[in-house]
Specification:
The chain is α/β, with parallel strands linked by helices. 31% of the residues lie in helices and 25% in strands.
């Protein structure tokens, strides 16, 4: 493919050389640049691709895309663009033959609910006979191929590679999580989203390495609705009008509000030993009864979003109800059967906001006791530890503080910080550093009617200690405990 073809649709200036050259490969990692490749100089938070020009030229790169002038041999083409990240997205799409145009792409953005909603949509559409690819926080699914995810929204070149594989595998629809970082860094630029979904927004990901302010966070989320054909938004969210500022899509809505096009009414909590769920009536653009095996009001929002999406693919009510009843998401309020007398679940809640939402939701089921097992990651903000300790102390009847991913810190030091937070409350707690022993304590001391939450790790199957990842999965720990018992 010629460089000129790859650059179509981009604003650029050829500083030296010619664009009438054949490109064998596209790379943004200097270690992967080779003979006849195009190298994109990406200025990242840690490294700057412009500094690696000598290495990639020596490796055989024949063209460079830069956002500031660089020195290069005369036989190397240098192309200047305003933003190399944006250029990378469009160049990658062209390099892989614009695979997104061969499928219907569904993008989901929001602070919470993205992962669960993607799996619900996938479950419903596959039940109706569609072949569906998925990209998200937990994994990438391409037919029978499952790839563990490194980022919620990968780099644009990786996204386009996956999309090409999905199109070649016969996928008709792709459902993907679209993070604010992904939108801010143009990772999804050039993708013609058929549908864009907004779940909700709350202050999160604000910091030096992420978003400078809540306004910036909100602004990045809103970009999706200038890039999709139809936007489907949670009409109950306080910031939904701001998300829609400057939108170019058709707008549909869901929620409890009477203004929403697809509404939930008549909520009923479903509570049996070892099982929690929620049932409700769908009204507005559809009319049916729904029950979901995932507890909480947030599950209603996630399922409403999924139903709103699947309307566009003419899925029958029976298929929707059946798929939602069986939809499960690894590590998201995932129930694990350990007893006939009490309920245990695993959840990814790993910050104060998520933990408060989870515990508040579960308290609505009026358990005998609400027991929370959690730890915090090392080399992260101490404030998060204080806040999570305070939340659990305030909302749980018993907190079992344990280890998470200590990284380069001592687990005991992290636990001490959590204890600092929990002592601001009158909540009961115990500290057990070994995670398996902490979970065993919760199970062995479970009382009839208890609801036990093991929080923080969710879908993760490792523990990070001193720079190494060791196998550790809460589900396997539970199984081992039950076998030993």
């Amino acid at each position: 493919m010629t460089l000129k073809t790859l650059l179509e649709g981009l604003e650029y200036q050829c500083l030296q050389g010619t664009t009438d050259i054949e490109i064998r490969d596209v790379a943004n990692d200097s270690r992967k640049a080779g003979e006849g490749s195009l190298f994109l100089c990406i200025q990242g938070a840690v490294t700057d691709g412009h500094e690696y020009v000598p290495q990639v030229v020596q490796a055989g790169a024949k063209a460079l895309v830069v956002q500031r002038p660089v020195e290069a041999p005369e036989d190397v083409t240098v192309v200047l663009v305003p933003d190399t990240r944006y250029a990378m997205a469009l160049i990658s799409a062209a390099y892989y033959g614009h695979p997104a145009e061969e499928m219907k792409i569904i993008g989901i953005t929001g602070t919470k609910g993205k992962t669960t909603t993607t799996y619900m949509i996938k479950s419903i559409l596959e039940g109706a006979g569609y072949k569906v690819g998925l990209m998200g926080t937990i994994e990438v699914i391409i037919g029978d191929k499952v790839i563990p995810a490194a980022n919620t929204t990968p780099e644009s070149c990786t996204i386009q590679k996956y999309l090409r594989e999905m199109a070649d595998a016969g996928c008709q629809i792709v459902v993907m999580e679209v993070s604010s970082q992904g939108l801010m860094l143009h990772r999804t630029a050039g993708i013609p989203f058929e549908l864009g979904i907004f779940t909700n927004i709350e202050p999160d990901h604000i910091g030096p390495a992420e978003h400078s302010s809540f306004e910036d966070y909100l602004s990045c989320k809103s970009r999706l609705f200038r890039q999709c054909r139809v936007g489907i938004l949670n009409w109950d969210d306080a910031h939904v009008r701001q998300i829609l500022e400057g939108h170019t899509c058709q707008v549909e809505s869901f929620g409890f509000s009477q203004e929403a096009g697809l509404r939930a009414e008549n909520l009923r909590l479903v509570n049996r030993p070892g099982y929690l769920g929620i049932a409700y009536t769908v009204t507005g653009k559809m009319h049916m009864e729904v029950e979901i095996d995932i507890p909480g009001k947030f599950s209603v929002y996630n399922s409403l979003a999924a139903i709103a999406v699947c309307r566009h693919f003419k899925v029958s009510e029976d298929n929707i109800k059946k798929a939602l009843k069986g939809a499960k998401v690894r590590g998201r309020v995932e129930m694990v059967k350990v007893s006939e007398h009490f309920t245990l679940m695993i959840d990814y809640a790993h910050n104060a906001m998520a933990l408060e939402s989870l515990l508040t939701t579960l308290a609505e089921y009026r358990p005998h006791r609400l027991v929370c097992v959690f730890g915090c990651g090392g080399n992260r903000s101490k404030l998060r530890r204080y806040e999570m300790g305070e939340v659990s102390g305030r909302l749980a009847d018993l907190t079992i503080i344990t280890s998470d991913n200590p990284r380069y810190e001592k687990p005991e030091d992290i636990i001490a910080d959590i204890v600092t937070g929990i002592r601001r409350t009158e909540g009961k707690y115990v500290t057990i550093t070994d995670r398996k022993e902490a979970i065993a304590y919760a199970i062995r001391h479970g009382e009839p009617g208890d609801l036990i939450v093991i929080a923080g790790k969710g879908h993760e199957d490792y523990q990070e200690i001193q720079g190494k990842k060791y196998p550790m999965d809460d589900r396997i720990l539970i199984q081992e405990i039950l076998e030993e018992k």
